[in-house]
Design a protein that fits this description.
8 strands; 2 domains; mainly alpha; three-stranded antiparallel beta sheet; three-stranded mixed beta sheet; 9 helices
Length: 324
Amino acid sequence: MSAERGAAKVGIDAIGSASRRAFLATGGALVVSFSLAPAGFAQNPKDAKQGPQSRAEAAQKAPALPGSLEHDPLLDAWIRIDANGAITVFTGKAELGQGIKTALVQVAAEQLVVEPGRIVLVTADTARTPNEGYTAGSQSMQHSGTAIMNAAAQVRAILVGLAAGKFRVSVEQLHVQDGVVHGPNGVQATYASLVTGEALHVRATPQSPLIDPAKHRVMGTSMPRVDIPGKVTGAPSYVQDLRMRGMVHARPVHVPPPQTAKSRAREERIAAREREQRRLRIEFEKAQRVAEMRGVERRRAPQRPVVRYYRAGSRDTTFSDVWR
């Protein structure tokens, strides 16, 4: 069954349609599937005949989907509800210590009206999650968070619509509490009992029935970060903590550039020169003190010139006056 036909049968506006009974009779769990066809592929011969300009004009006229839903518009690419009631949320972003796992769990729990502890979040699994590219630039909540928020709100609306058809009441007579749809006279149905066939294998819509921010229970509140226990116990918390079987790794070994490299022999020569410089400095200071002391004696005693002669060819053939 195509996504468009599924949407027509499970849409909220088609609550009383008889085709919904086929869904309710099938039973089972939600089957997750992904559309791998690029957005540029033509869906029918008419689209194939359209030129690039016609397709661009059509894209401009169509309202953009919120966040990363624009690139992965199927709801079951983001939200999965099993027959046993397990709720799995998918994101293509990775937890790097910035806390997005906790924030995304809060967003999904708020819009699905379930406790955060019931949400299982799968992050950056290339075999299961939408392809959201790099996790960088502080854009995880802007793109993935917005997509999950709207997808969760639309999934909740679809399930409430299914419950309305099952109970034969209007949507306004129903309310959700922790994943259970309650109706008049005590009737109720869990999300797991309402999910059948390809009920959620439908394209997202630009508008979502988001919960009024004034009624938020989870979003905007302080919640313990889900990655803290792993950090305390040493369990894998981030993608860089993963260790797969047979996994090898490489690391760069930085060699000092030639202009800063120092050999051991050169270091020893430098140390010896420094020791010699210290020794000469000490000898000079001693000689300077002795000279100062002799200068005091010179001033006390009468001074007379002394002439010294040197042989020709010696080291110094001149003579000088030396004052004692």
